[in-house]
């Protein structure tokens, strides 16, 4: 190769590298990245919901709406469309969003969500719920029922506007949760460059623009995107969507192996749900809905476990099966799968030949069903009991429900705890037990904090936080009023379950612990870096708590992820109802063919003398069961029928979600720059032509320099 050619090649490579470095530097100087949380796309069996953007993002001039006058100026006078509109929490309403979108002037929305600053993010006093006014109705017990379907009798979620289920295709919506970045958007971008002058006239260029990028891979519906994902090609190995799902957590008081007899009507199910949702990525709080239920049931299990020998050592007692269902916010994913597995004799686990596993449970075994729902906002200061009117057409079921109601009232009266019973003609609120009652008329009672419509005005929304239920504290040692109230409810629940199981009055010293309830509320709602979580984790898992102090999100997520709320609930349940066995850490596991019990190594409490944790091995029946729609296991299922839901989440690339601001020049300047660039290009081409024409003279190289 000639030396001259080598020199040219090196020059080209260095020039390209230098251009790349300079382009990155220019990009960093041109754009300011904003860490927003995007509304993203999900799909069910019939359609898509959520948000997306154009492939390269939506761009618009930032406009901050603070009142009606701002809206009027934008829609009637704003000349620099498209706009990206910045709103606060009170303005973020479905009708208003549709008005902006349909105006043709707005290209996307940014919502301020700084919970620490109520001036920037006031709680909507009338409530806010992106869920529907009749949650989960399509896959519930009363779907298409002429008397109860579509919430004809009771509108459970009157503030629900269904924004979650709208399809904002190519119309991105983001929230910003950091006040510093909100200040950048308002002060450094909008007020400095874009805010109209006092007389209403338009500001001169440059203007400050925002790019909202929210590119989704999945589209149309769950069936379409999932089948496309299942047929990968070498040319396009990417996935389009993943099924929503995770695991349920279940545990029984009695460890009954599959070889033993499990009589009919010998199991009481005590259930709660684990999840909620909101529109935006990684913003999935849950306080009244449904942490109060989770904590209430866990605390009841802890109180009951102190007297579990009364149940275990008596063959005539009923077993108690604790169940925490995952994915319930998305049309009862977890409870639907449990019903499916019961029908196919694989619940709680598939029997293994030659091995001892937990006894199968099906509908014939279930005698009663008690569900703990929302408990944080007690209507008239009472806990309300809900029953199903359709089940009570059966005389025997009706009699058993009567007995359950009378028992609960008796236990509550002895504690001076207010109990309210709803009309027997009122249907059940959204509850996991509805999926069971579709198959079998089981005597069932649902505990909740509302008599009719939800008392929770922020159902399945980003405002359902600890502060809203008066459980907010920065000190886990301070017992909140909510913790005190939940302790009394969980005590009542534990005593009720004990009597249903044994037929005997519960001991008066059977009580839930205020400190445990308070700790659980703190761990789930305030900070994951809490004592109770550290106790139940092993050394390796404990390190994960130190990554962030934020509470874990209550979103079911996709089946390929590890849900920390589910994992912690399983360990907490084992900690509360399990036995501490004398196994070392290395031997804390199943042995041989006995698969009835599960073994979990836990760090345990801190020894006050050594100031070190005393680890121990917990043995219990706490185990995972699948919480995924059966549809994804079947190739020939008709996706259009309403037996099982089919929710998926769209996939996206690492750089597909982005928010950034930058300055844009006037159109005249852009045209001038374009013309200058074209002129420079033309001059360069002419120069290159003549240089090439005289190349033999300009770049002559002596033959002696060749190699």
From TrEMBL:
Membrane association type: Single-pass type I membrane protein
Primary location group: membrane
Domain of life: Eukaryota
Record-linked PANTHER family: NICASTRIN
Keywords: Glycoprotein, Membrane, Notch signaling pathway, Signal, Transmembrane, Transmembrane helix
Keyword Glycoprotein: yes
Protein name in the entry: Nicastrin
Nicastrin small lobe domain residues: 38-218
Protein family (similarity comment): Belongs to the nicastrin family.
GO cellular component, one term: plasma membrane
A GO biological-process term: Notch receptor processing
Intracellular or extracellular location(s): Membrane
């Amino acid at each position: 190769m000639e030396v001259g050619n080598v020199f040219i090649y090196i020059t080209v490579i260095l020039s390209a590298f230098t251009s790349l470095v300079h382009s990155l530097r220019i990009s960093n100087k041109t754009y300011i990245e904003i860490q927003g949380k995007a509304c993203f796309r999900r799909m069910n069996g019939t359609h898509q919901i959520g948000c997306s953007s154009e492939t390269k993002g939506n761009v618009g001039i930032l406009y901050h709406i603070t009142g009606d006058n701002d809206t009027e100026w934008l829609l009637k006078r704003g000349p620099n469309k498209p706009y990206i509109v910045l709103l606060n929490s009170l303005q973020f309403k479905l009708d208003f969003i549709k008005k902006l979108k349909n105006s043709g002037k707005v290209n996307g929305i940014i919502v301020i969500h700084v919970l620490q600053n109520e001036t920037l993010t006031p709680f909507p006093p009338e409530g806010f719920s992106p869920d529907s006014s009749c949650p989960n109705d399509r896959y519930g017990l009363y779907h298409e029922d002429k008397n109860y379907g579509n919430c004809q009798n009771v509108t459970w979620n009157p503030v629900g506007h269904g924004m979650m289920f709208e399809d904002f295709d190519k119309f991105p919506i983001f929230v910003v949760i950091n006040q510093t970045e909100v200040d950048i958007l308002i002060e450094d971008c909008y007020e400095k460059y874009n805010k109209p002058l006092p007389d209403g006239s338009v500001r001169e260029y440059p203007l400050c623009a925002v790019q909202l990028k929210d590119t989704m891979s999945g589209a149309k519906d769950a069936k379409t995107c999932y089948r496309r994902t299942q047929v990968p090609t070498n040319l396009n190995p990417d996935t389009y969507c993943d099924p929503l799902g995770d695991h349920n957590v279940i545990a029984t008081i009695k460890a009954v192996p599959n070889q033993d007899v499990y009589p009919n009507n010998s199991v009481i199910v005590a259930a709660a749900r684990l999840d909620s949702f909101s529109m935006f990525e990684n913003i999935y709080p849950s306080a009244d809905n449904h942490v109060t239920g989770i904590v209430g049931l866990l605390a009841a299990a802890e109180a009951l476990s102190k007297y579990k020998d009364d149940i275990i050592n008596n063959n005539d007692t009923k077993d108690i099966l604790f169940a925490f269902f995952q994915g319930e916010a998305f049309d009862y994913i977890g409870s639907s799968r449990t019903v499916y597995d019961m029908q196919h004799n694989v619940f709680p686990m598939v029997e293994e030949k030659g091995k001892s596993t937990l006894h199968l449970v099906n509908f014939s075994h279930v005698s009663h069903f008690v569900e703990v729902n929302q408990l944080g906002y007690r209507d008239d200061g009472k806990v309300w009991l809900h029953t199903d009117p359709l089940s009570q057409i059966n005389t025997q079921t009706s009699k058993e429900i009567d007995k359950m109601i009378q028992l609960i009232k008796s236990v509550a009266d002895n504690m001076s705890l207010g109990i309210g019973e709803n009309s027997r003609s009122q249907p059940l609120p959204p509850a996991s037990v509805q999926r069971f009652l579709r198959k079998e008329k089981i005597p069932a009672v649902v505990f909740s904090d509302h008599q009719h419509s939800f008392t929770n005005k922020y159902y399945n929304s980003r405002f359902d936080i600890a502060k809203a239920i008066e459980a907010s504290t920065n000190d886990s040692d301070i017992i909140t009023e909510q913790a005190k109230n939940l302790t009394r409810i969980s005590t009542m629940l534990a005593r009720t379950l004990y009597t249903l199981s044994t037929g005997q009055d519960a001991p008066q010293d059977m009580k839930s612990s205020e400190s445990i309830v308070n700790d659980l509320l703190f761990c789930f709602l305030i900070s994951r870096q809490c004592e109770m979580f550290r106790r139940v984790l092993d050394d390796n898992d404990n390190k994960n708590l130190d990554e962030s102090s934020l509470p874990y999100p209550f979103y079911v997520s996709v089946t390929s992820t590890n849900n920390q709320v589910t994992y912690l609930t399983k360990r907490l349940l084992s900690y509360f109802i399990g036995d501490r066995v004398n196994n070392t850490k290395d031997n804390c596991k199943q042995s041989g063919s006995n698969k009835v019990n599960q073994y979990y190594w836990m760090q345990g409490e801190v020894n006050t003398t050594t100031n070190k944790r005393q680890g121990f091995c917990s043995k219990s029946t706490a185990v995972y069961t699948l919480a995924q729609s059966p549809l994804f296991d079947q190739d020939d299922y008709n996706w259009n029928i309403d037996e099982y839901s089919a929710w998926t989440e769209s996939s996206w690339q690492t750089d597909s979600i982005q928010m950034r601001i930058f300055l844009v020049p006037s159109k005249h300047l852009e045209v001038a720059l374009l013309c200058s660039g074209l002129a420079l290009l033309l001059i360069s081409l002419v120069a290159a032509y003549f240089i090439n024409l005289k190349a033999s003279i300009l770049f002559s190289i002596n033959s002696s320099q060749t190699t």
